[in-house]
Design goal:
elongated, RibonucZ/Hydroxyglut_hydro, alpha/beta, Flavoprotein-like_sf, 24 strands, metal ion binding, FMN binding, oxidoreductase activity, Rossmann fold, 33% helix
Length: 393
């Protein structure tokens, strides 16, 4: 499938309906690897696909042009999901690889680049390809040191690579084709929360640069193309990087025999009755990336774990490591809870993660319980939740 974006610019990427795992990110809706073709005096590809999608990419490309007529392949970012097919692509097309110095280094460290011809570009540099100019804007650490975006100056099209993307396989290629726009923004938020969050302090500066450009289309390398909602997605990026939170509690737990679960639910009820929006997630059946989407702008994070063999429950340990790496905003309120049999060990591990993240830790006796919590204990959990909602923290 190929889709015309505007005269001379086409989407020729690959839709992966099957992918469910993406370096730990559970992609329940699949993903797309967007590749774009610009036809001018020089024919240009923007980014490539994962290695196994090479054939699909070639099929799409051949429906528009003889691949040997490709002059340049712009590589905005060296990660394998956009470069895995590059070795074959360079060999087959004979095209020159246009990228920045850091990305070139990353390509050389991942592939056999012998014989590749590179054009190394710097920040704000332009490349003329006929009637068009391509302008390269470096966006280091969003989310690798090698990231850049490419702006087709005359067309007002921004090829943003990972930025503004979503892991979402769909037949729709453009935002305005989506009936449920909020769903699209939720997917975009989830992507932000799991890919860009640790580097969010760099986002406002990049947005300032982008605001100086006129942008008719944002063409990311995953998900749909932004056309009708360009301003809105830029605004949402600013909002998600602001560290502002809403009055939401995210309660995350795992459990062996449901004791920790009972506590989670009662604390949640108290918070709800206290007027807080509550989300409760069991780690055994919820992808961590979904949970991080809600933690991004939550005021409260409550994490529960039973004690297993003098330690925290493994799925909770895994979640803590994941969350800590993503460095959600500090000044959140952290609560650790859990059931144990004879010597409680789990909540200390949770609390030390909260402390490293700069969360304000709230503690109470009722947050740990020996074996199965009795009704009296659960009602204390409920009261705690209700009080937490009112605490002036
Ligand atoms: C394999 C296993 C190992 C356990 N190890 C410990 C332990 O080292 N220390 C402890 O205090 N409790 C230990 N427990 C007891 C549990 O923490 C206790 O049953 C708790 O109520 C489980 O909570 P849950 O229903 O939320 O899973 C262990 C339980 C199991 C099944
Ligand atoms: Fe990436
Ligand atoms: Fe990517």
């Amino acid at each position: 499938m190929v889709v015309k974006i505007k005269d001379g610019i086409y989407w020729i990427g690959a839709i992966d309906w099957d992918v469910r795992e993406f370096h730990g990110y559970e992609t329940l809706n699949g993903s797309t690897y967007n590749v774009y073709l610009i036809r001018d005096e020089k024919n240009v590809l923007i980014d490539a696909t994962k290695g196994y999608l090479f054939q699909e990419l070639m099929l799409n490309l051949k429906s528009l042009i003889d691949p040997k007529e490709i002059d340049y392949i712009v590589v905005n970012h060296g990660e394998m999901d956009h470069t895995g097919s590059l070795e074959k692509l360079v060999k087959y097309t004979g095209a020159k690889v246009v990228t920045n110095e850091r990305c070139r280094e990353h390509l050389e460290l991942q592939y056999n680049t012998e014989g590749w011809e590179f054009i190394t570009v710097d920040d704000k540099e332009e490349l003329e390809i006929g009637s068009r100019r391509l302008k390269f804007i470096k966006t280091p650490m969003l989310h690798w040191p090698d990231n850049m975006v490419t702006y087709a100056v005359e067309d007002k099209v921004l090829f943003s690579n990972d930025a503004f993307g979503q892991h979402l396989a769909s037949s729709e290629r453009f935002d305005y084709q989506f009936k449920d726009l909020e769903l699209l923004f939720e997917e975009t938020k989830e992507y932000f929360a799991n890919i860009l969050l640790p580097y969010r302090m760099l986002v406002p500066g990049v947005l300032e640069t982008l605001k100086k450009l006129e942008i008719d289309y944002i063409c990311p390398s995953h998900g749909v193309i932004w056309k009708e909602h360009v301003g809105e997605v830029l605004e949402r990026y600013l909002e998600w990087s602001s560290d502002r939170y809403v009055n939401r509690a995210v309660i995350v737990y795992d459990t062996m025999y449901n004791s920790t679960k009972k506590m989670a639910h009662r604390i949640g009820e108290g918070l709800m009755d206290g007027g807080v929006q509550v989300k409760i997630y069991n780690l055994s059946n919820t992808p961590m990336n979904k949970i991080m989407r809600d933690i991004l702008d939550a005021k409260y994070v409550l994490i529960g774990s039973p004690t297993l063999n003098s330690n925290i429950y493994p799925s909770v340990a895994k979640f803590l490591a994941y969350m800590e790496g993503l460095k959600p905003a500090d000044k959140k309120i952290g609560v650790a809870f859990g059931s144990y049999g004879w010597m409680e060990m789990a909540t200390g591990v949770i609390k030390s993660t909260f402390e490293r993240l700069g969360f304000k830790v709230v503690e109470e006796d009722c947050l740990t319980c020996r074996f199965v919590p009795k009704e009296e204990h659960l009602s204390r959990c409920y009261e705690f939740g209700k009080r937490l909602a009112q605490m002036d923290l």
